[in-house]
Amino acid sequence: MQPELHVSPNIYMRPFPRFDRPTVIGYIGLENLKYARRISNDRVCLDLNLHIDKVIRKPDDLDVKLKDLTQFLLEHERRLNFPLETSLDNAKFFCYRGLMTCVACTPYENQEPWKIVAILFKGNIYLCARDTAEKLHRKLNMTERDKQFTSWGYKFEQYLLSDEPDSEPNPDVPVDENEEFSLVFTTKLNGHTIVYGAEMDGIRCDKEAVAKPPAELGPEAIVNYLSTKEFIELKTNRHIENNRQETSFRRFKSKKWWCQSFLAGVDTILCGYRNDDGIVEELKTWQIKDLIKISQRFWNPDVCFNFLDTFLIYVKRCLAREIKKKHGEKALNNLQELPMISLMFEWTPGMSVQVAQNYSHHDDPVLMPWFTDNYGKVAK
């Protein structure tokens, strides 16, 4: 029986853990890179319903698992040249930023349960969020209004972002919600090395002239280019008109906004405040440090990142117990020779994090054969 991980915020009320500013090591979907030319506090009138009847939505059954990230790792294996780790202490974590945000916010979450699969493969740990029954139910029963809310966020980005650093945005075309640009970061959180993908909205080019990335010079030059650019996060929010809405924003949304941006090294958020009809009437910039100031009564970033650190320790400990049980103590220092090992971690508000019984990656494969059959073959 695996131990449980307690979640209560007061357990994690200690100084912020050591966290290195994320370093860019790659990118996914360079053709979809966008630029933000005008960033200001302003009164506007942006109709988020423009061409909404022609929007190209993501497939309803979309289950990306770790496809984009593992494809990136495979394509750039020789360039990245990650060492072959043999012990869990040095195992890298591979995941998406959304999963890290979800885990970090857990001590203050009171509605959304989660499931996370951890897979130990060739000395590294892959973390992937899986749909809970509640989330699956919502996916299958999305109303037209739900889809509209989702599309409004994408349309807002189209009003603010352009395809070229020196061109204007063009909202007069339907949005393709499948177009994404992501950065791949690495960072250290205390003793953990984490490699993660994060979808990015756009490069700021309101402060100085920005050129396009030197695509013809190859990945290293592009990574160097992206590392020197300041990105901005775009959000939409309903107008805040009363104390209840203000409290809700400070307690819930500000936490997620801060965590997402902090993990991607983003300092500024541009929010479009809209009415119920999908008309953005005001633009307001937020510095992410100010989100902490207005929300001190409701959440604490120290707690969020101490819990994230503790969760990663917990994952390693649970995997270690599993290895010892199935392969013996000596196997802990010979990870490269082990078959794939997977555990499912589950959490429900008000409960502790637990390891699901009888989970098998054969029933729900997260790492695809095209990855597992080929990754790790590059000579070190």
TrEMBL record:
One of its Pfam families is: RAI1
Keyword Nucleus annotated: yes
Record-level GO cellular component terms: cytosol; nucleus
Give cofactor(s), names only. a divalent metal cation
Question: Which molecular-function annotation in GO is an example for this chain?
Answer: metal ion binding
Q: Where in the cell is it found?
A: Nucleus
Enzyme Commission numbers on file: 3.6.1.-
Keyword terms, alphabetized: Hydrolase, Metal-binding, Nuclease, Nucleotide-binding, Nucleus, RNA-binding
Say where the protein is mainly found: nucleus
Boundaries of each RAI1-like domain copy? 33-369
Instruction: Report the top EC class in one word.
Output: hydrolase
Hydrolase found in the keyword field: yes
A biological-process GO annotation: nuclear-transcribed mRNA catabolic process
Its annotated function is as follows: Decapping enzyme for NAD-capped RNAs: specifically hydrolyzes the nicotinamide adenine dinucleotide (NAD) cap from a subset of RNAs by removing the entire NAD moiety from the 5'-end of an NAD-capped RNA.
Q: Tell me the protein family, please.
A: Belongs to the DXO/Dom3Z family.
Q: What is this protein called?
A: Decapping nuclease
Classification lineage: Eukaryota, Metazoa, Ecdysozoa, Arthropoda, Hexapoda
